[in-house]
Design brief:
about 90 residues; alpha+beta; two-stranded antiparallel sheet; about 25% helix
Length: about 90
């Protein structure tokens, strides 16, 4: 099922949706020369972010914020495990 709609449909949580979202865990992973790079985290199953600690923390914060504020956040539980001592927040 493909979703289509006007900005009004996707701009309000109260809007009627024609069924389950096609990819509730779709997140922005970056930007390429052709536009945004989107990744469906659901298809990954597990995501491990490594590398520079400050860069990794920024990636986790951005993904968590995007998922927590997603129009589809009622379709999944967001659990962040082992995320730095500077973040005492929990989002579910």
């Amino acid at each position: 099922m493909w979703w289509t709609g006007t900005p009004t449909l996707f701009g309000h949580r109260e809007a009627h949706h024609p069924g389950p979202p096609p990819a509730p865990l779709l997140v922005t992973a970056g930007q390429g020369s052709d536009g945004l790079i989107m990744v469906n985290l659901e298809s990954l199953g597990t995501l491990i972010v490594g590398g520079d600690p400050s860069g990794s923390e920024g990636v986790i914060r951005a993904l968590s914020l995007e998922l927590a504020t997603s129009l589809w956040n009622g379709w999944f539980d967001l659990v962040v495990v082992g995320f730095g001592p500077s973040w005492n927040g929990s989002t579910e």
